[in-house]
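Weekend entry, working from home. Most of the wet-lab plans are on hold until the incubator is repaired, so I used the time to fold the two sequences that have been sitting in the queue since the last round of cloning. Logging both here for the record. First:
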Amino acid sequence: QVQVVESGGGLVQPGGSLRLSCAASGNFFRINDMGWYRQAPGKQRELVARITSGGSTNYADSVKGRFTISRDNAKKTVYLQMNSPKPEDTAAYYCNVQIWLTLLRSSDYWGQGTQVTVSS
């Protein structure tokens, strides 16, 4: 059984900082790409940042220069460092991981979501 657990969400003030974590556990061979998505009320889920197994990153234009995605392969964890968050960053953040269950089969898994609220 594969589990993806997120943590680190909460209330943060504009101009503050927050770091989200997402750890994968279970029986699998390897983690490939990992990413963060978010969904605000009344809006579709959107890509925030993504990082490949080789370390290449991709960011939404709205968060470039403010958010940083990173990974720790030993801990099987992906992070999202949120600096200078804005009220419009308020959303439920979801972690997505592509996991190689075996050498021949991979599957996408999603975290349960963690709420980030940016407010004074």
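Second, folded right after the first finished:
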Amino acid sequence: QAQLVESGGGLVQAGGSLRLSCAASTRTFSSYAMGWFRQTPAKEREFVAAIRRNDGSTNYPDSVKGRFTISRDNAKNTVHLQMNSLKPEDTAVYYCAARRDLAASLRNYALYNEWGQGTQVTVSS
């Protein structure tokens, strides 16, 4: 059964903003690093953002750096992705994911072992 539940997707004009949220179980949130990935039918899964548990450090690819911000809400076992200055190229299904917080790279989707159902983000030109 799904342990992660995403929300906050929708339709927005280019230049606008959306905030995605991902609710996790207490076990997952307290023990794992959290990440966001996105995917379209024609492309491979793409790393978007991640945040570690141990030190709260974050990681972003160049495609979203400066526009997207990942954060953790410890009181609500929730991770957020604030997306600003959205572009049509950001259109995709966005997935929340969790993995054990090891020293390995957070950008490799194969290392994540828990996934949400996805939420659609559509950016119009």
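Plan for Monday: verify the second prediction. The mean pLDDT is 93.
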